[in-house]
Every structure is written in C-alpha cells, then in structure tokens.
Write a structure and sequence with these properties.
Layout (H helix, E strand, L loop, with lengths): L3 E2 L4 H6 L9 E5 L6 E5 L9 E6 L2 E10 L6 E4 L1 E4 L6 H4 L12 H16 L4 H8 L1 E4 L46 E4 L9 H23 L9 E2 L4 E2 L33 H4 L19 H4 L5 E5 L5 E5 L8 E5 L2 E3 L1 H13 L7 E5 L2 E4 L3 E2 L6 E2 L5 E8 L2 E8 L10 E2 L12 E2 L10 E2 L2
Parallel strand pairs: 10-18, 11-15, 19-22
Antiparallel strand pairs: 1-7, 2-3, 2-7, 3-5, 4-5, 5-6, 8-9, 12-13, 14-21, 15-17, 16-17, 20-21, 23-24
GO biological process, one term: methylation
Subcellular location: Chromosome; Nucleus
Pfam families: AWS (PF17907), PWWP (PF00855), SET (PF00856)
C-alpha cells in the first residue's frame, strides 16, 4: 500500500488540519508495534479528533484513532500515514517481517485488520462513522438513586464500622480502559445507503460489532467510584441541632441484668419496643445491655461490590439473623434551608445522583460527600433490609435491619419507597426480583 507520510514540519502540520476528516482510514504506530490499520474518530473525552502538542520547541499534531480488529482500542497517535491498497506496507518497512516470521496471532490480527480496512475503503466516510463512531457525554457510572428514603452510591471508601485497614484508592484514568469506554454513548442517526451484495456481509459484521460496543458501553461501570469521606456519626451542618428529642422523653427500662440477653430482641425491653436505645448510665443492665447497637457500632462485616447491571451494591460477609442491626445511614445532617441550597446546586449541575435521606422536613441526611458503606445499598422490590428511625441519646438516627435471616455473600437491599410525582419520568427498576414492579417507587 502506498503510504503518504504526514509532514512533520510544524508549519506543514498546521496546514494539514483541514486535510484530515473523520472516517479516514489510516496507518498508525504506537511503541514497538508495527503500523496498524485504523479509522480516524472522535476522542470520547474531548470530542476532538486532532490536537496540538509541544515537542522540542516545535508545535506538532496528534490524531485520535480507533484501531481495526483490535477490540475497539483507541489512542492519540503522532506516527500516522494515509492508508492505500496499492502496495504492501511490509515492502516499505521490511523490519516488520521479524514480527511475523512465525505467523503468530499478532500477524493474523494484523492481516485481518488490513482486510477490514480495504473493505471499509469501499464505503463512504459517513457510512463508516455510522457503523463505528458515537457521540459521547463525559459521564461515569451514572447512577440514578433518587428518592425520599435514600440515594444510590457512586463511591467506595473505608467505612469506620468495617474491620478494614485499607485506604488505597485508584484514580480513574483519563484514557479509555481496554475494550470499553468510560462514557455513556449516544448513537448518531442512521444513514441509508445502497450496498452491493459483496458489501452487505461486511455491513452485517460491522453492525454486530457496533451492537457489541454499545452493550459494552451501557454495561460498563467505572471501576473506581468518586471519593467520599468516611465518618462514623452524622455531621451537623448549618443551624441543625444534633438533638431533636428532649431528655424528659427518655425513661430507663425495667430489664433484669441477670437475664441471658438483657434488653435483647426477645427480652421485652420497653425502650427497644419504642425504638429507643438504652442509656448505659441509666439502664439497669449497665454494660450488659444489648440495646445499644448504634452507640457500640455493632455491625456485621459488609463490603461494596460491583453488580452486573446496577452499579455498586453492598453485600454481607457474615450471616445476619432476622431483625439484627446491620448498619447506620450517616452523612451531613441538614436542616430544610441547607437541603434546599444543596438540591438547587444539583439541579443546576443536572446531577441526578442524590444521597438524601429524609428523617422529617427539618432533618435530612446527605451522604453525598460524607458517609459510610450504607450509601451503596441498592433498591429492590423484594428487599431483605428495612430502614427504621431510632432515638439515640435524644437524636433521631436511621439504621438498617434484617427483615429475615440473610446468608453470607448476599446483597443487602431495601425498598426506596420513592413517591413518584405526576409528570416526572419514572425510574426503571432493574432489581430482577420475581415481583419487580418495573419502576422504582409506587
């Protein structure tokens, strides 16, 4: 294939900007690999396909390409040539023969890529891009977790309640990772064209690849959610007061400290029945009191994990018995005014990832920037957990409790009970439960 080299002089390169078009078939080289057939396309992050860079005080150009027959890998390249069918590139670069002396897998992929490029040359550029290219918006792990009872998590960090010493984080790369883009894709409109029979099979093959790419884009979730600050207890913000119940409301129970499980689930503890935690200084059972799960942070071991199609979730590593305390929902504790401010900011930014949990109209928990692993809990139409409001030392707090016995390794889920509003688009539910309502909420 006759190769027309792109001029390397900076002034010549600047003139070449108008020469390149999206959909051009090119040769491109990275590192020690041979020149590889590719198609010129947009970078999903910048929506550009050509950019300038500085090297040895010279202004040069880089182009963004997608390599053919290489799992959709993309890259910015500077060593690039115009693709042509007329002459074999090995005659121009005989050193590449060393790569293919054993006719290995690399050679097979390389020759397949050349065949694909030759077939693509028979299509016009618009048709090529209809098959290969998409327009991207820079979003990662878009998780719609909206509702009065909680918001879907986007982050992974170390929860104070979990026995873990790991604080290592992994920054999201600014380039595409392997076979998948980190962005949601929007297909360009279809273009009708008349193809010969010899090209129809090629079109079918490319359409199948396109569908596979779209599925990969839609199913891919960022391997590292955005950061949040792990905290043990609610952090009051603005004018909100940490205590919202007077001390005169609390009364000590009459539990016998000599019972096998004083103040436990089957003890008949009056405070437990009213969802009040016992005060260790007033409870007759003292240190033996088993109605202090919020204070003592008596949690099973839980950990975030990446689900198949619902982003990040939370699972238990321990067996959990029915009615057992699992984890508290914590974050910034807001009053109504501060909540409205934060909500307006999210609306202006068109951010649909909310982490609010409404205790009442004047007390709202926001786990957006601070929280624990409870923020990873997904919605389910058949939940195994339920949230309850408890009074702890005069403060209303929210905890999740097991609706039934839960096996180790199970995902922890609860019903968001999101109240749908007329005129607002319902959120599709993907819980997979047998009795799934198909939408989150009622």
């Amino acid at each position: 294939m006759t190769s027309k080299i792109i001029p390397k002089n900076s002034s010549q390169l600047m003139q070449q900007k108008q020469f390149f078009k999206i959909g051009d078939i090119m040769w491109a080289k990275i590192g020690k690999y041979p020149f590889w057939p590719c198609i010129l396309c947009f970078d999903p992050y910048s929506n550009k396909f050509i950019k300038e860079y500085r090297e040895n005080n010279n202004t040069l150009l880089q182009l963004h390409v997608r390599f053919l027959n290489d799992y959709g890998r993309r890259s910015w390249v500077k060593n690039i040539y115009i693709f042509s069918e007329e002459q074999n590139v090995l005659s121009k670069y005989p050193q590449y023969l060393s790569y293919f002396q054993k006719k290995n897998a690399l050679f097979k992929n390389w020759t397949s890529a050349i065949e694909e490029a030759q077939k693509l040359l028979k299509l016009n550029q618009e048709k090529r891009m209809t098959i290969f290219e998409k327009t991207y918006t820079r979003t990662t792990n878009s998780r719609k977790h909206i509702g009065s009872n909680g918001s879907k998590p986007q982050n992974m960090s170390v929860d104070s309640c979990i026995n873990s010493k790991s604080t290592k984080t992994y920054p999201l790369k600014s380039s595409l990772m392997n076979k998948y883009d980190l962005s949601d894709s929007i297909e360009k409109p279809k273009v009708t064209s008349t193809l010969t029979d010899s090209l129809k099979s090629m079109e079918t093959k490319l359409k199948k690849r396109k569908i596979a790419d779209i599925q990969a884009h839609n199913n891919y979730i960022s391997m590292e959610p955005s950061k949040f600050l792990p905290i043990k207890f609610n952090n009051p913000c603005g004018n909100v007061k940490i205590k919202d119940i007077g001390d005169d409301v609390f009364n000590p129970c009459n539990c016998n400290p000599n019972q096998s499980d004083p103040c436990g689930p089957n003890s008949g503890c009056l405070n437990r029945l009213l969802m009040f935690e016992c005060d260790p200084e007033l409870c007759p059972a003292g240190d033996k009191c088993n109605n202090q799960q919020f204070k003592k942070q008596l949690c099973p071991t839980v950990t975030p994990f990446l689900t198949k199609n619902r982003g990040w979730g939370l699972k238990t590593l321990d067996i959990i018995k029915k009615e057992s305390f699992i984890i508290e929902y914590v974050g910034d504790l807001l009053d109504g005014e501060e909540f409205n401010k934060r909500m307006n900011i999210l609306i202006k930014k068109r951010n649909e990832n909310h982490y609010f949990f409404h205790i009442n109209n004047s007390r709202i928990i926001d786990a957006g920037s601070k929280g624990n692993f409870s923020r990873f809990m997904n919605h389910s139409c058949e939940p195994n957990c339920e949230s309850y409001k408890w009074i702890v030392n005069g403060e209303t707090r929210v905890g999740f409790f097991a609706l039934h016995d839960i096996a180790a390794g199970s995902e922890l889920v609860f019903n968001y009970n999101f109240q749908n509003v007329k005129g607002v688009t319902k959120i599709p539910c993907q819980c997979g439960a047998a009795k799934c309502s198909k939408f989150i909420g009622v």
